[in-house]
Amino acid sequence: MFLFRTVAFFVAALFLAPAGWPQAATDPSDAVAASAGSPVAFVYVTRPTHIDGFAVSSSGKLTPVPGSPFANIAASSLSVNKKFLFAAGDNNRDIYTFSIASNGAIKQISEIDVQKYSDDCVTIGPLQIDNTGSSLYLQVNDSCQDNGFIQTFKIESNGDLQFVGNTSGVPLDVVKVLPPIRFIGDDKIGWEAGLGSDDGLVNGYPGAYERKSNGSLVYLGSYYGPPNPKNPDDQYLTSSIATDSTDHVVFSLEDYSNDDGVIVGNDVLGTFTAKADGALTTQSTNTNMPTTALSPVGTMSISPSGKLLAAGGQGFQVFHFNGSSPIAHYTGLLQAEDNFEEFGWDRDNHLFALSGNALFVYTATPTSIKQTAGSPYSIPQASSLIVFNK
Description:
This protein has about 400 residues and is mostly beta strands. Helices cover about 0% and strands about 50% of the residues. A hairpin with a 2-residue loop joins β27 and β28.
């Protein structure tokens, strides 16, 4: 069943780095070494005053790219296509475009004031680029109008953003947090997880969008189907989302007790297959879904191979992902003392896990997972991570 829904934004938590962790290298000679090598990918991380850029070696070692850290850039969210890095400014009004050099160095080439297309009451949330790399989507909350919406921009060949339109929703007077929209492989359907509030989750059902040829979005509605909790009086609410390169969507599900008004137990992970009209089917049930060690799951990401799923919150876990088949346990809880903001993957089996105070790097395959030499890298007050695969 589908009913009208809307969107909001998330707020990232900030933590200080424990003493004794390796610091992100800043020696200029290290930056030169990074440009002289052959990195497999570049990783960018936001802080309150700058962006850190790293070259990733085949072993997973991180080395600052030339010019890193890139100063006087205050951003809260990052996204990337094959040519440009985009950053949402923490002034709640600007999106910045950066060119990416062959050595990973970035240079700002344009910016756009998103408040021109709404009003001065907006708070901007996470960015997301579609799978073709031609459209950028911005989650927006408008406190004056008590609603939220998604702004759509066309990415021009020079990196400029051309406003396409807003996709509005219902009033959001209690809304606090929502993950960004995620697109399935053919780019025709995007999904978002449910809404949250200060006093617990409300209306926490996933919503679907149809993506038109010009990148604009049409809201299709919310999903209220299976799986269902063991207790028939309870309901599953979604807290996080991930999609793969084909037609699969993963939601972390919280068992909400309607009788007691509380979340029961830790999150479970359900996998769904998306049809062309946005409808979802699933083989997941309350008997075959893996229970995480997390409550709630705040962020998830599927590996490029489509075989692994990372789920994070207070600590993180890696699961075996099998498309439409039930997700399977793999690791226990890793780095339980850290709260994780975002994940990223390169194509050389490296998993990047960003907490509020450090960047962890693992080599992760279906048969082994191991933290790489030099990890974790101390990055105090980090808020967003993106991987640029060469």
